[in-house]
What we know:
This protein is mainly α. Helices cover about 60% and strands about 5% of the residues. It has 2 domains: about 1-95, DNA polymerase, domain 1 (Orthogonal Bundle), CATH 1.10.150; about 120-295, Intergrase catalytic core (hpI Integrase, Chain A). A 3-stranded antiparallel beta sheet has the order 1-2-3. A hairpin with a 4-residue loop joins strand 1 and strand 2 (about 170-175). The longest helix has 24 residues, at about 20-45. The relative contact order is 0.09.
Amino acid sequence: MEVEVEAFVAALKKVSRAAENTVVNYRRDLMAFRQFLLDRSALLGKPVNEIDTATLTADHIRAYLADLMKSSKRATVQRRLSSIKAFFRFRETATGNPSPARAIRSPKSERRLPRILQQNEVRQLIEADPGASSMATLRDRAIFETLYSSGLRVSELVGLNWGDIDDELGMVMVKQGKGNKDRMAPIGEPALDALSEWRRTMPIAWEPDGPVFVNLRGGRLTTRAVEQILERRIQAAGLGTQITPHGLRHCFATHMLNNGADLRSIQEMLGHASLATTQRYTHVSVNHLKEVYKRAHPRA
C-alpha cells in the first residue's frame, strides 16, 4: 500500500498540480489509514509488515472511520474519508478494480452556532479606547463600524477601495467576494461618519482606486492585522467573549434578524449563494427568543 500511496501523491503533484500542503495532507491521511490497518492486523494475531490494497473492503474503511469518530472531530473524519476516496479512485483508474470507498457516505457536519456579541457589547467594542494613536483609533473605529454595519467578510473589508463606497446612496460595492460575485451592501451613517474621519487623517492621500484601510506606513491592511487589532480592542472594551472579525458578520446577521429583517434580504446583503447558509441564523434568533421568554414570562 505504501508504494501505491507514493504513486498517488506523485500523480497529485504532477497531473493535478496540487499545492504542497494538499499533497502532504493526503499522504499523512492515507498513511494514518495504513497504520490503523497494520495495528488492527496485530490485534487480530496476524501481524503483517504491509497492507495488500487489493484485499481491502468497505468494512475495513468503515472500521477505521468508526475508530476515528471516538477521538476526532467530524471535520477530521470527513477529510480522512475524502483522502481515502481520492486514493481508491486513482487506483481504480490504474487497475480497473472498483473502489471499496465509493458507497461510503461522509458523516454529517457538526452544526455549530456562530458566537456573537449582544448589541450593547458591539457598542462597547466600537467605542472602546485602546490607547493607540489618534490616527490608529480613527482607523480602527472605522474598521469595526464598517464590518458591523455591512456584514462584510474581513477579506472583503481589506480589499475595499474608496471608489467602492457611495456616500450619497449609503452603499458599498463588494468586489470579488467569495465565489467571485460582486454585490451591493448597505452601510449606515455611523460607519460613513467614521470612514470620513479616517479619510481626513490617513497617512497617505486617498484616491478612488486606493485602499480604504492602510497601516500607518500607508500599505494596505492585511486580514491578520485586522484580527490583531480586534484582539486589542476586545481587551480594551473589557469583553469576556472572544470574537473574530467574521464574528462581527454573524452579529450583523443575527441582530438584523432579531430586529425584524427577513432572511432573503439578509441573504442578499451577506452574499450567500444559498438561503440554507443564511438560515443558520434563525437558530441563534430562536435561542435569543428563548432567553427573553425565560427572563420575562412569570411561568417560563
